[in-house]
Amino acid sequence: MFPKLLLVSNQDLNTRGALKSLSADELGKLSSLAQISTALSRADGGFFEVANTLLDKLLETLGAERFAVLLHPPNESQSLFRSQGPDGVTADPFPFSTTVVNSVKESGEPLVTLDAMDDQRLSTSVSIQLTGARSVMCVPIKGTGLLYVDNRLSTGIFREAELSLLTILADLFSAALERVRNLERLEAAYAALRASQEETVTRLAAAADWRDTDTAQHINRVGEYCAHLAHWAGCSQEYVEEIRMASKMHDVGKLGVPDAILLKPGRFNEEEFKTMKRHTTMGGKILEGSSSPLLQMAHRIALSHHEHYDGSGYPEGLKGEEIPLEGRITSICDAFDAMCSKRVYKEAYPMDKVFGIIRAELGRQFDPRLGQLFIEHRDEVEQIREQFSKP
Ligand SMILES: [Fe+2]
Ligand SMILES: [Fe+2]
User: Fold this and answer.
1) Which of 203, 213, 285, 339 would be 354's cystine partner, CB 3.0–4.6 Å?
2) CATH of the domain at 224
3) pTM of the model
4) Ligand 1 mean position to 368 CA, how many Å?
5) Does 9 have pLDDT greater than 50?
6) Residue 326: which pLDDT band, with cuts at 50, 70 and 90?
7) Are residues 267 and 349 in the same domain?
8) What's the whole-number mean pLDDT along residues 312-329?
9) Distance in Å, CA 16 to ligand 1 centroid
10) pLDDT of 237 above 90
11) Ligand 1 centroid vs 269 CA: distance in angstroms?
């Protein structure tokens, strides 16, 4: 069996040839369409950015006087307008033809009129008389409302070609809106996921901390100081948010420390101190092996928040920058908050004494650069302490 031949007539060839000889006006419209399409695909700031982009681009390219994106109820009060006037462009609402708008709403079909005053379909329209519109175009925007354009000065400025252009633009606009809405939905879902993750982390960390600290406030304060110190140290916003949560789990290993040691009022003997120190490696075990970057950071913090910059800390005796950055940050913030809080084994120290100890420990217990930054931001640190200590 022979394959089917694709026959091309002379007429087809002529039509194809015609594509090459578009008029300057038609080429201009195609180029405008391409520009508006690109602008719409780039606008991602939300509905109003997309709608304003569309109106501004229409104003630049379509020789008409007034443009509007008219939204369906219940959002109609947020409709957007653009008018060319003697004093330039305004975004003030203008009276549009309700007859045209209702007709497009009911039929779902686009409408164009060469001369509204002389158009049989609109002959009984009071709104046309009132607005004085002569040339009018209106097309539906899927699921959103209508795109409305009119001109009061001249007739016949819109033809079927402009109506097709406007219909394509309404479709592009609706696709851009759908993209923006999907993005917003995704962002909302991500925020909800983050919030539930944060709540889970805080509750788990609080369970470990509850026995020897006042409330969950210690871990919330540590999270907050760490986020601020990371920010002052020039870390990225992503890192700042990560450490805010991850640092809350620094003492999660205390779940494995017996009450008799954890709540002991006096000094530890050597054996008790050894057990107490194990909360770092126990925390490491609880948090190890996760694929989540947040838990991986929490794992590093649990293991390293009692390491000292000069190598005299535990459990590994790491030194300087061998200690992960998040461990060095948490070390300062955790020690600071512990020093200014009352514990079973000690009273709260006065603020001057606490900052004095931090200064004295720069380069010994604490990273000198980070510790210095912490001291330089004393006012903000004290504000955080106050803000996160309220019952
Ligand atoms: Fe600890
Ligand atoms: Fe702590």
Assistant:
1) 339
2) 1.10.3210.10
3) 0.64
4) 20
5) no
6) very high
7) yes
8) 98
9) 77
10) yes
11) 18
| 223 and 322 fall within a common domain | yes
Q: Please indicate, yes or no, whether residues 355 and 236 belong to a single structural domain of this protein.
A: yes
**Which two tokens mark 302?**
């649990």
The whole-number pLDDT of residue 211 equals 72
Domain of 40: which CATH number? Answer: 3.30.450.40
What's the mean pLDDT in 256-268?
Answer: 85
Reported as a pLDDT band with limits 50, 70 and 90, residue 228 is very high
**Cα of 252 from ligand 2 centre, angstroms:** 9
Q: Which of 183, 202, 233 is the last residue of a domain?
A: 183
- Do 254 and 289 belong to one domain? yes
Whether 342 and 241 share a structural domain: yes
Q: Which residues pair with 140 in a beta bridge?
A: 146
Regarding whether 30 and 173 lie in a shared domain, the answer is yes
Query: Nearest bound ligand to CA 339?
Result: 2
Pair 340, 375 in one domain: yes
* CA 56 to centroid of ligand 2, rounded, Å: 55
Q: Give a yes or no: residue 18 inside a domain.
A: no
Average pLDDT over residues 105-116: 88
For residues 349 and 339, the answer to whether their CB atoms sit within 8 Å is: yes
Distance 289 CA to ligand 2 centre (A): 23
Instruction: Return the DSSP state at 5.
Output: P
177 falls within a domain: yes
Total domains present in the chain: 2
Same domain, 63 and 107: yes
For residues 184 and 198, the answer to whether their CB atoms sit within 8 Å is no
Task: Name the E strands within the chain.
Answer: 66-71, 80-85, 88-90, 111-113, 135-141, 145-151
Q: Which are the contacts of 356, defined by CB distance < 8 A and separation ≥ 6?
A: none
Q: Residue 31: is its pLDDT beyond 80?
A: no
Residue 238 CA to ligand 1 center (angstroms) comes to 24
Report the separation in Å between the CA atom of 250 and the middle of ligand 1, taken as the mean of its atom positions: 6
Q: Is 287 exposed, middle or buried (0-12, 13-18, 19+ CB in 10 A)?
A: buried
Residue 52's domain comprises: 25-183
Calculate the alpha carbon distances from 13 to 225, 288, 291 in Å.
73, 69, 60
Alpha carbons 159 and 64: distance in angstroms, whole number: 12
Identify which ligand lies nearest to the alpha carbon of 251. Answer: 1
Mention every residue, 6+ apart, whose C-beta is less than 8 A from residue 371: 332, 358, 359, 361, 362
> Where does a domain end: 183, 201, 222?
183
The answer to whether residue 205 sits within a structural domain is no
